[in-house]
Design brief:
The protein is mainly alpha-helical and 524 residues long. It folds into three domains: 195 residues, MFS general substrate transporter like domains (Growth Hormone, Chain: A, Up-down Bundle), CATH 1.20.1250; 56 residues; 240 residues, MFS general substrate transporter like domains (Growth Hormone, Chain: A, Up-down Bundle). 71% of the residues lie in helices and 3% in strands. The protein has a two-stranded antiparallel sheet with strand order 1-4. It is globular.
């Protein structure tokens, strides 16, 4: 292990930016992959002659793999070293991507997506650990702003890239695009990241792993099944959520006993970490769940193509890019409790615009709302993460970033499921079209469902007034869902009010979570 004394507050030096480049490259792959594949789901249905419920497992399987492997990241980073583990995650993700492109059936594709997710799940927490240790506590804000670019642009660039690749090439390139990026990232990581050193003295928490990883996977499986079943009373929803929840609760009770638990919940004694983690958790539920429906509105209600829907989301990314560097600098100088509430206010103002959606809402108004929302996003997510990690000791960073990533994953899954269930239940309340049934299931088709299908290019002989009535009902359903999301955004102000409003010094060696003076940064 080598030591690198943290540089004084100021601009990020070339050595730190070189390390950040490696992490950003990995983050781009893992985050883009989620949104790129979401665009390809209709194509998978056609190519593999599968139902939507079957192809949705290409997303669910990836998510469950992330949830399974993330808890292992903190221990593995300490045990094997961040460089070695990060390169292994890159290799696994890249190989999984190539295998996905060779899939000949939907079952094979789901299996390979799980393999891909095992690699992708480690990229973000290990990447955050590498960057935090490289920058030092006084520069975490600026460095998190760098990492935040792919995190915020992924949901915007993914649909654009996915739509373009499918239009000009084939669905295989949705996965093959990761091969050159992954190869470049591996070479870059080998050359740029500091040398590893293992810590064989720390034991592995097998009991904790047998509770937490299956517990998270089962719980998220149940949550992910909600949109398909439409009710929490469905057997595969409530049973898996119950068993998964009990396993997670069992882990929480057990985790305070071993010296080195799989997930160190004792870190939550650090008030900064606990308040920031709760703020991030509520924010992810509120924004990410509804945010994934923004492009769906353009696709289903306005009849836009995949590429055009992605381009309409671009103002959000532009807004985030403008404010994120400023927020990063401010996070290193001003307590986040003084800046994040203003950024959240911008998100709330922009989000309110989508509660007003109709069948012909002005694109200028909607794009303006997305831009304002993006301005707020650039000053929210990464400053909160900065607050969560900056008062941790260097030896706690790997486990702290693992904890934050798990909460993000759970929050995103819960938010997506909540919004999907609300929208689906609202759409199912539309009157049926007499004599029109789904050829795959035999179920009657609603006016809203038929109108959306027509907007997306289906040839269904329907009177104009039925299509108009169905689209209006669908637009109202989106607006109702966005109202729920808006209420959750407002609820985020409660935990944010407890974010630190006073400047705190950086940590030194001592009791876990105690803030004090600056310390050399341990580099693996």
């Amino acid at each position: 292990m080598t030591e690198q004394t943290a540089a004084p507050p100021g601009k990020l030096d070339a050595a730190v930016l070189k390390i950040a480049g490696v992490v950003v490259l990995g983050a781009i792959m893992s985050i883009l992959d989620i949104t790129v594949v979401s665009v390809a789901l209709p194509t998978f249905q056609t190519e593999f002659d599968a139902t939507y419920a079957q192809v949705a497992w290409t997303m669910t399987g990836y998510t469950l793999a992330l949830a399974t492997v993330i808890p292992l990241s903190g221990w593995a980073a300490d045990r094997f070293g961040t460089k070695r583990l990060y390169m292994m995650a890159l290799l696994l993700f890249t190989l999984g991507s190539v295998l996905c492109a060779t899939a000949g059936s939907i079952e094979q594709l789901v299996t390979y997506r799980v393999l891909q997710g095992l690699g992708g799940g480690m990229l973000m927490p290990i990447g955050m650990t590498i960057m935090t240790r490289a920058a030092g506590p006084e520069r975490i804000g600026r460095l998190m702003a760098v990492l935040g670019v792919p995190m915020l642009l992924g949901p915007i660039g993914g649909p654009i890239l996915g739509g373009w690749l499918i239009e000009v090439a084939s669905w295989h390139w949705v996965f093959l695009i990761n091969l050159p990026i992954g190869a470049a990232a591996l070479v870059y990581a080998y050359l740029a990241l500091p040398k590893d050193e293992a810590h064989p003295s720390e034991s592995f928490d097998f009991v904790g792993m047998l509770m937490l990883s299956p517990g998270l996977a089962l719980f998220l499986f149940g949550v992910s099944s909600l949109p398909e079943t439409g009710t929490i009373t469905a057997t595969k929803v409530w049973t898996t959520m119950l068993v998964g929840g009990l396993l997670v609760i069992g882990f929480v009770l057990y985790s305070f006993k071993p010296k080195h638990p799989l997930l160190d919940l004792r870190l939550l004694r650090n008030r900064n970490l606990s308040v920031a983690s709760l703020s991030l958790f509520v924010f992810i539920i509120a924004f990410m769940g509804a945010g994934l429906l923004f492009p769906s509105y353009f696709l289903q209600i306005r009849g836009e193509g995949t590429l055009d829907a992605g381009l309409l989301m671009a103002p959000q990314g532009i807004g985030a890019v403008l404010t994120m560097p400023i927020a990063g600098m401010l996070a290193d100088k001003i307590p986040v409790g003084r800046t994040v509430p203003f950024a959240m206010a911008l998100i709330a103002v922009g989000f309110f615009g989508f509660t007003q959606v109709d069948t012909d809402t002005s694109y200028v108004f909607l794009c303006g709302s997305l831009f304002v929302m993006g301005l707020g996003m650039g000053g929210t997510m990464m400053p909160i993460m900065t607050s969560a990690l900056r008062t941790l000791q260097p030896v706690e960073v790997a486990r702290g970033s693992t904890l934050v990533n798990i909460l993000q994953q759970i929050g995103g899954s819960i938010g997506t499921a909540i919004m999907s269930v609300i929208l689906t239940s609202r759409l199912n309340g539309s009157p049926d079209v007499p004599g029109l049934t789904n050829p795959q299931t035999g179920d009657p088709i609603t006016e809203a469902g038929a109108a959306i299908a027509v907007q997306q290019g289906a040839q269904i002989p329907l009177p104009a007034q039925v299509i108009e009535r169905g689209l209006q009902f669908a637009a109202d359903s989106f607006a109702t869902t966005f109202w729920v999301g808006f209420a959750l955004v407002l609820a985020t102000f409660i935990p944010i009010a407890f974010l630190p409003r006073k400047r705190r010094p950086a940590p030194v060696s001592g009791a876990p979570g105690e803030p004090a003076v600056d310390t050399p940064i341990m580099m693996h």
